[in-house]
Amino acid sequence: MATLKEELEKLMELQILDAQLLEINNQLKELPGQINILEKEDILLGKELEEFEKAFTHFKVERRQKDNELKAIEEQIKNLQSRTNDVKTNKEYQAIQKEISALKEKKSSLEDEILLLMDNDEQFKEKEKQLKVKAEEYKKKKQEKQKDLENTINQLKENKKILEQKRQEYLPQIDKAILNLYIRVKQSKKDGIAICRITKGSNGNICGGCYVYIPGYLTEKIKRKTEIVQCENCGRILIE
Ligand SMILES: [Zn+2]
């Protein structure tokens, strides 16, 4: 039979394992979220590019329409000009000239619009290039980060398995009642510390968990090591 001292020392070691396991579990909870964030950002960039392509396509259609309009006007002007050779009267001639000059005016303003669209076209192409580069670079970065995260997760899972195995080896070495007390206290503590050593303060011994002074009679009990002693303030199991 192990002595109480030995069991409590084992309990201290178990607590270290539990703390490591808690840390691993926290990380295992958090890391997949980081992968999701990467994924979401990637989707957003993809959507941005998609929206842009839609606008660009719309723009190209508009440009093509203007080009066709210009061609049609040029054709009309050419037809009218060829008709001037066949006109019989001055009146008729002037009417055609008037029509031609109206069309030429229309043509000129259309050409201005097209020039402007050509400028925009350059800007669109530049922006398209930038967005594509951005999306591609992000994809690359995302893949690298994802791989890193997955490696970390696998490593953590491996460590967790080892720690859990070790934990299983500890359990039979500790009295069930002590173990249950440990688990109960641990569950009530945010820091997960259920057993701690006493430390020397200027006026006596202090609980290593809540830093409150321990009365002399309790210190005596702790030193005797014949029974479990809990801090009167925080309830943690105390050892020397
Ligand atoms: Zn305490």
From TrEMBL:
Leader sequence residues: none
Keywords: Coiled coil
Positions of the C4-type zinc ribbon domain: 207-238
InterPro entries given in the database record: CT398_CC_hairpin, Oxidative_Scav/Glycosyltrans, Zf-RING_7
UniProt entry tagged with the keyword Cell wall biogenesis/degradation: no
Pfam families registered for this protein in UniProt: CT398_CC (PF24481), Zn_ribbon_9 (PF02591)
Coiled-coil spans in chain: 21-169
Domain CT398-like coiled coil hairpin: 14-189
Name of this chain's protein: Zinc ribbon domain protein
Organism of this sequence: candidate division TA06 bacterium ADurb.Bin131
